[in-house]
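Schema walkthrough. Field components (list of strings):
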Amino acid sequence: MAEQIVTVEVDKNGNFSVDLAGFQGKGCKAVADAFQQVGKVTKEETKPEYYQEGPGGHGIALGRG
Amino acid sequence: MSAYTEQQTQITDADILTECLKAKGVKEVINHDTAVQLEGYHGDKRKDTAEIVIPRRAIGGMSNDVGFKKQTDGTYKAVISQYDSHRFNAAWMTDLKKIYAEKKIHKVAKKNGLTFIGKKVGQDGGFKLQFVKA
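Field assembly_structure (string):
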């Protein structure tokens, strides 16, 4: 299983981006949702892994991730 | 990569905001449960209210209280008089926002089982934080 890395880049204005690497399915959504406590999402991109089943998952995960 | 988001930092955590103000060198910050009237430089009560207050005695000179007022959406908005806006200006607020973002990101990461790997500071005033899922 690939290492799950989160890279958060805070820009000069204090806003930020979150890049999730190696996450799949529901685990990805949970981490992405958690960072909404820091700020409002203005742009969002999902990747194919988002629709893959994570460990212990059942079926295709829905939502961000 | 499995997901990428861009987000606008929103100051909603009173405890972290208080920590950030102290990190910015503010000597005294009072965190009230409910909004109180701010004091003017004469000791007069102003119509502006705020939950988080930097008392004028901690600012000095002819300053008024500086406050952070909780909005209906849960975010805090700075209440700064025109006189004090020279010190507590846009650059000061941006720096506060960056410190807040960093502290809150660490708090959220820790709560979600992420382990901090490192920080890289950029030349443009931004920085990058990296975490790994344990």
